[in-house]
Amino acid sequence: MSSDFESYEQDFAVLTAEITGRIGKVPKLVGDEKKQMVANVEKQLEEARELLEQMELEVREIPPQSRGMYSSRMRSYKQEMGKLEADFKRSRIAYSDEVRNELLGDDGNSSENQRAHLLDNTERLERSSRRLEAGYQIAVETGEQLGEVVMEKLNHSLPK
Question: Where is this region: Disordered (predicted)?
């Protein structure tokens, strides 16, 4: 079972490396090339999300006593995914700001400051959401483990 997880991990690592490379290219491209690259990155981000879901399913199937290590790796992968998505947003916004400023002849300083502030707030909200999700997952896992322990004790204490 963990071999499936490790296979998904390898696929995720390769995919995120490709996404990172393509995200770096997005601001430098123009026109149809940029649109094509954005579409490719969006598709790859979706594939990465699906891999994370498959990995989560595999972790749920792992016995509770060895699940902790895999759960912490999953949290790390989710954080990496969030970072990739934020980087992708920034790369697209950087490009749109350049085009806007060029067309309007505007230096856009106040707009840039507002956009940066909004991005920071969005990022902060996303981090908080991930922390809440991780806390919820830990609570669920702890509840499952406690339930198993209680059921085991009850099973042993019942007269046979």
Answer: 103-126
